[in-house]
Amino acid sequence: MLVALDLTGDVITYAYFDGSEVVTEELSNMKGFRTKDLFKVDGAITSLLRVVKDMIGFAGVTVTESIVALPAYCNYAERERVKNAAVSAGMSAPYMIRGSLASALTLFQTTDMDKKDAVLCSVHSNYAEMLLFSVDGDVFRVLGATSILYEGDAVAEDPEKLQKRIRSELKALYSEQGLTMGEKDEEIYISIDENAGTQGEAFTEILGECYETTPTEFENDAAQGAFYQLMKREDFRCDTIRKCFLVDCSVEGISIGSGVGGEIVEVCKRNVPLPVKTEVCLPVSFDNVLCFYAGNYRNREYDEPIGTCRIPGQYRTQNVHVKITLNEDGIVEYSVLDASRQVIYPRQKLN
């Protein structure tokens, strides 16, 4: 049996089909809980999945597979951690969906959006996700996504700083698609988590000023709402979820940098058809490290790669060839060759 687990907010919810209807439950005693803390404590995700599995087991349903909605800020390593935790808990987690995409899918399924471009902003207690997408009939295409991490007190203390950050993120989001912010009449939607507090009002006001329009508030922000809609469909099949997953797993794209201050080469853009097989050539910098980044730029705030590979010292300042494969499950594998095409590192997973 399939269970949908929503880890995008600070309240854990899950949904499953008991044979007659979709049941949605919420874990209690979660006061003071923050989803991002799950990734800081070893074994926390495994324990959580076991609790969910046992709770559903009390209802006479055995869970074998899970669809997990993760916050937008989760990187590849954290997604892998969730998959491994699911196996430890006695189930598989073949499908993962970003929170912003899941929210947009719910919006897409419950609203008449025959043909339009839209922006969806999902505001949570300590982060916000902004999604740029287009709808044409029954074709849903994610153009790009970005997220902003913040502390609640910072929003109230310096709203002008928040406004500058939001404008900067939006401009970058459009620029990556070769678009100019405000050149189209986009529909602006905003959803506010119940734990977001006054931050929701701040984002609504700022987005209204950015687009010179009044954003439409969208109530159902829980990612499990998308699962609920999908699982209720008469034609529900696992490949429906697979399609959603494939759209999302490459939403950030991948690029490689040749170390601190080195050159950055784009490997693939967002929402490319999978699988991707490509090769890039770049010189090794003095720190002998190749850095893999999400997107076609370094993280603007933290400058942290999603993975690294240290090259032996004898190849310093020489060119190396990196072969990259992004498969249908969003797993990145790479191998490194020197200038004479001799293998430095055989194929291995990005972590």
Poorly predicted ranges (pLDDT <50, ≥5 residues)? none
Count the helices. How many? 8
| Element order: H for helix, E for strand | EEEHEHEHEEEHHEHEHHEEEEEEEE
Number of separate strands? 18
Strand order of the largest sheet: 3-2-1-4-5
What distance separates the N and C termini? 30 Å
Kindly report the oligomeric state of this protein. Answer: single chain
Mean pLDDT: 80
Name the structural class: alpha+beta
**Outline, from the CA principal axes?**
globular
Radius of gyration: 21 Å
Helix content: 25-40%
Largest sheet: 5 strands, mixed
Q: Would you summarize the structure shown here?
A:
This protein has helices at residues 44-57, 76-88, 99-110, 152-157, 159-175, 199-211, 224-232, 238-249, and strands at residues 2-6, 13-17, 22-26, 65-70, 92-98, 115-123, 127-136, 139-149, 187-192, 216-217, 254-257, 264-268, 276-283, 289-294, 307-310, 319-326, 332-338, 343-349. It is α+β, with helices and mostly antiparallel strands. Helix 6 links the parallel strand 9 (187-192) and strand 10.
